[in-house]
Amino acid sequence: MDNTFITGKLKTRFPENILAVDEHSDMLTVVVAKEVIHEVIRFLKENESLGFTFLTTLCGIHYPDQELQLGVVYHMHRFSDNTRIRIKTFLPVGNPVVPTVTDLFSGANWMERETYDFYGILFEGHPNLKRILNVEYLDYFPMRKEYPLEDPTREDKDNRFFGR
Amino acid sequence: MNDNRYTTLNLGPTHPATHGIFQNVLTLDGERIIDTEQTIGYIHRAFEKIAERKSYYQITTLTDRMNYCSSPINNIGWQMAVEKLLGVRTTKRVDYMRIIVMELARITDHLICNSVIGVDSGALTGFVYVFQEREKVYEIYELLCGARLTTNVGRIGGFERDFTPEVIKKIYEFLDHLPKVLRQFEKLLLRNRIFMDRTLNVGPISAERAVNYGFSGPNLRAAGVDYDVRVTSPYSSYDDFDFTIPVGSQGDTYDRFCVRQEEVWQSLKLIRNALDNLPEGKYFVDVPEFYLPPKEDVYSKMEALIWHFKIVMGEIGAPVGEIYHSVEAGNGELGFYLVSDGGRAPYRLHFRRPCFIYYQALPEMIRGGVLSDAILTMSSMNVIAGELDG
Fold first, then answer.
1. pLDDT value, residue A164
2. Which of A51, A87, B282, B367 is buried deepest, with most CB atoms within 10 A?
3. ipTM of the complex, rounded to two decimals
């Protein structure tokens, strides 16, 4: 299936909420507004001519310099002709709420819990949104960029010489 | 709910039948399972966070520790993901060598899983037979890279050293010997009435539910979906070879056992084909920015010394980009979602760990069954704690 067909379909169905389309990456990447993310995923899964029935991954990402800092990235797969698509949506860090897709994909349950655990993204309507890999009493979201791996007060090491 | 009616049983975190550190809190009515709640994360090591500070070649050692039953597949999968980001094309020799190593790893992975199903159903003998064979593969790893379990085999761009004649001899010996053991093993279990009674219709899942849960690998194929990354998106020249993808129909423990068993036979065929037709050429490609130069060159050539220094100090950035690369690991689609901002380390690296995704289906698969069947279902799904927790 070619990319123009998919983007055409999406743009017809969601004329105002497809924010960006990128075809230069290894697969078609579409950024959509968070208001319609659930509908977009449902459309991709259930529309007969699209049929992306496999949710490969769901994960978070954090860009501290953006206005909408937190992102959720969905990778979907259509088995019949091996087409993959990447859907992204971005959320403000003050109110990181996005609808769950567990009603469409049972497998999204733990993936969303993992994303919540590490990025603090709240999946509205999730049946059991609690930490999964970290301890329950952890009071921060460790994969956010403000938590560096090394002690930031360390003075004996000049980061300029060690990349990031 | 009458509290006195049900029993709560903690299966795990350190129960011998879980074969790893994770917990199931079972609610039982007599021996029937009403429900279960899983607790995982006991050996979570934050690989995704650590990876954001490690330079690319250092992340290979993190990937070993995910599915430690078949670490070479993780290593090579990661190296191929980086090569995809860099736009590097490997030589045929590298591809074939990779196929050989990865299929050896798949064999060990499946042998362990299948023999453990035997152990959990009360047949220890088969396990002892095939465990000896795994030892032989580990000896091959040792000759290849010096390590056994957490192999760290290969480099970005190829291998650190070529197959020596001894490695090739050992692999041929293994290929000649394993079928005998495998046939013995199959005689013990495959048509064994007791084993079949214990596994048929135990922990079944339909194809539709399996896809909905994001199953991949042997567990998905046992349910009847013929999805295999090696065929749908052939990497590392898998399309040069002719092999069959076994598919089950019921998605139960017996089908999972049979699918894995047949995959071992297919892997043997693949390895022999690749080894017989091993192309001449270099065992690595020219990516001086990422491929550590041979040690003798470092001591004698200026350029090699400079690259060695730059790589080890992590001074080299990767191109800006965003890729997803997946390989067919022992348990299914192992994916690497890699975002690079041009720095020396990934900006974001997410591992799609097949165990983590399919293990969440366990409650649905064991509900209504008896406790002893739940143990078998769990071992036939091949949940590896390292991959589960990441």
1. 46
2. A87
3. 0.92
